């Protein structure tokens, strides 16, 4: 849908026949009723016109696009308008159902909007099916180039040779990612996010007596909110929060984040956090996994696409915290608590590919139920310590200030002066 959208433009947002006035000589026209006008997506404005009783078939709608653009539209723009028309028709149809249910008949409009949603939705589905990528999996260089083009800030670093190769494969056209390009990226798209929020947070006493640590406010905002906002901003709407301690307190999140699904962990107070991962074991494919008490200060770390399984970390000369050793290719070879030599300090944010996520769903219960020791380990140890040969998990470098873990009440007071007693 985003492909072909172009720049945000001024939209009427109620653009249809009754709001278009034609002079008696049919030489001039003007548009009235601008009360809903705002900057937005041209496709939704034009889609509104098409869906709202124009009577256009898909073929007829495509035929008017040169008049709208003042030029021949690209295939991506045609697809974009068709998709937007389907969505607009669907939303108007749902609104008509509500009005009918409320005792306010909509007359022929219900059928008009339903027909637009059905016809243009069917065409959009066909276009998507035909654009599916059937080539080889992307190389890391190809993946990096495509995501850089989507993120215009990094596109200038792509070599002309790389652009030419992507164009030859039909993955980009005129400097923009094509439908085939987006289809090629689809296996790398993050589809869900898991938040581990079941723990007590004993080192944050006294504030965690009545408030789970992820819900503690820093600078007036709940710690977990920054993570949730970052996830929502990249289009991840499948969100799971594993809760335990004071679990009902997390219900307050639904007012701002209604797409959250809660998973209760009844073992949170008798096992380590592996039980929280076990409760969500079937959700790790193409998924971010977060410790929910991380103060995120660089939301750009959460991206729509990830090429491989990874952990965020930053290089240090030595540390007393959890850390990784990695080989020259960046693959994690060891996880440990503290190191006297150069290593990578762990940040509690990871991403799991489809294959590794599926493998983890099998390994988590195997390790957890193998013996009593398995119930008392950290969930990260399953892939990184218990069965490291079965996974290829890499370092994704960040800066120390990008994410801050507040471990103690003293650290909270140091960061947010509102918690200081004097």
Q: Would you write up a description of this structure?
A:
By secondary structure, the chain is an alpha+beta fold. 35% of the residues lie in helices and 20% in strands. The chain has twelve helices and 19 strands. The strands form six sheets. Strands 7, 10, 11, 12, 14, 15, 16, 17 and 18 form a nine-stranded mixed beta sheet that branches. Strands 1-4 form a two-stranded antiparallel sheet. A hairpin with a 6-residue loop joins strand 2 and strand 3 (29-31). The longest helix is centred in the first third of the chain and has 27 residues, at 75-101. It is globular, with a radius of gyration of 26 Å. The chain starts with 8 loop residues before the first strand and ends in a 7-residue tail after the last helix. The model has no long low-confidence stretch (mean pLDDT 92).
Largest sheet: 9 strands, mixed
Distance between the termini: 53 Å
Mean pLDDT: 92
Helix content: 25-40%
Name the shape in a single word. globular
Structural class: alpha+beta
**Strand element count:** 19
Strand content range: 15-25%
- Could you list the spans in which at least 5 consecutive residues all have pLDDT below 50? none
Number of helices: 12
Rg for CA atoms: 26 Å
Can you give keywords for this protein?
422 residues; alpha+beta; 9-stranded mixed beta sheet; two-stranded antiparallel sheet; globular
């Amino acid at each position: 849908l985003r492909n072909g959208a172009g720049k945000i433009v001024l939209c009427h947002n109620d653009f249809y026949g009754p709001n278009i006035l034609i002079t008696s000589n049919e030489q001039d026209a003007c548009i009235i009723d601008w009360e809903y006008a705002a900057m937005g997506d041209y496709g939704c404005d034009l889609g509104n016109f098409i869906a709202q009783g124009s009577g256009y078939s898909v073929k007829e709608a495509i035929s008017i696009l040169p008049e709208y653009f003042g030029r021949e539209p690209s295939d991506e723009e045609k697809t974009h308008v068709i998709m937007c028309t389907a969505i607009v028709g669907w939303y108007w149809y749902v609104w008509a159902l509500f009005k009918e249910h409320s005792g306010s008949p909509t007359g022929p409009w219900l059928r008009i909007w339903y027909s637009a949603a059905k016809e243009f939705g069917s065409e959009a589905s066909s276009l998507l099916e035909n654009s599916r990528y059937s080539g080889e999996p992307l190389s890391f260089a190809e993946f990096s180039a495509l995501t850089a083009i989507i993120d215009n800030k990094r596109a200038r670093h792509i070599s002309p040779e790389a652009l030419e190769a992507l164009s030859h494969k039909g993955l980009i056209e005129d400097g923009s990612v094509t439908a085939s390009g987006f289809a090629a990226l689809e296996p790398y798209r993050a589809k869900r996010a898991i938040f581990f929020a079941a723990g007590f947070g004993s080192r944050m006493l006294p504030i965690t007596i009545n408030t789970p640590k992820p819900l503690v406010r820093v600078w007036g905002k709940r710690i977990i909110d920054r993570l949730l906002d970052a996830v929502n901003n990249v289009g991840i709407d499948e969100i799971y929060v594993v809760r335990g301690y004071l679990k009902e307190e997390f219900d307050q999140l639904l007012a701002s984040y209604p797409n959250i699904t809660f998973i209760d962990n009844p073992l949170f107070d008798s096992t380590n956090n592996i039980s929280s991962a076990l409760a969500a074991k079937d959700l790790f494919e193409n998924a971010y996994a977060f410790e929910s008490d991380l103060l995120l200060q660089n939301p750009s770390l959460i991206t729509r696409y990830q090429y491989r399984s990874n952990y965020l970390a930053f290089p240090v000369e030595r540390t007393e915290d959890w850390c990784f050793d990695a080989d020259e290719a960046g693959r994690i070879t060891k996880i440990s608590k503290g190191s006297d030599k150069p290593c990578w300090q762990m940040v509690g944010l990871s991403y799991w590919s489809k294959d590794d996520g599926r493998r983890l769903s099998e390994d988590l219960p195997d390790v957890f139920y193998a013996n009593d020791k398995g119930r008392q380990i950290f969930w990260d140890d399953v892939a990184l310590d218990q069965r490291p040969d079965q996974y290829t998990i890499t370092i994704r470098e960040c800066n120390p200030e990008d994410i801050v873990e507040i471990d103690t009440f003293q650290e909270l007071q140091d960061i947010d002066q509102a918690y200081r007693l004097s």
